[in-house]
Write a structure and sequence with these properties.
Blueprint: H1 16-21, E1 27-29, E2 34-36, H2 40-49, H3 58-75
Antiparallel strand pairs: 1-2
Helix pairs in contact: 2-3
C-alpha cells in the first residue's frame, strides 16, 4: 500500500484550529483526520495511540501504518514494529476495535 503522508511546515503543539487547517496528507488516518504527524513527537504519539483509534477498517489501519512509517523515517523515529497488528499489545489496554 502506498503512503499518503507528506511533511508539513507546522510543528509543535497543535490547537484544534491548527488541526482543522492541516492538509489530510499529514494524518496517519487521512480520511478520518486522526493522528496528525507534524514532528517526531506527534509520530511517537500516533504509534502510542494507534490501538485507540476506533471506527476504522483494517484497510484504513494498513494505510495509517504506512503513513506512520513514512513520517517516522522523515523525523528519525525508530519503529520496531513491522505490522500494525503488533502495535498496542503492551503496555496499552486491549481495544475491541481490532
Amino acid at each position: 500500500m502506498k503512503t499518503t503522508w507528506k511533511p508539513h511546515e507546522k510543528h509543535g503543539g497543535l490547537s484544534e484550529k491548527d488541526k482543522r487547517e492541516l492538509p489530510e496528507s499529514v494524518f496517519a488516518f487521512p480520511d478520518e483526520r486522526k493522528e496528525p504527524m507534524t514532528d517526531a513527537s506527534h509520530v511517537r504519539n500516533a504509534i502510542a495511540r494507534f490501538d485507540q483509534v476506533q471506527g476504522v477498517t483494517d484497510k484504513d489501519r494498513d494505510l495509517a501504518f504506512q503513513n506512520i512509517l513514512a513520517a517516522a523515517k522523515h523525523y528519525g523515529v525508530d519503529v520496531a514494529e513491522t505490522n500494525w497488528r503488533q502495535l498496542g499489545k503492551l503496555p496499552h489496554t486491549p481495544n475491541p476495535a481490532h
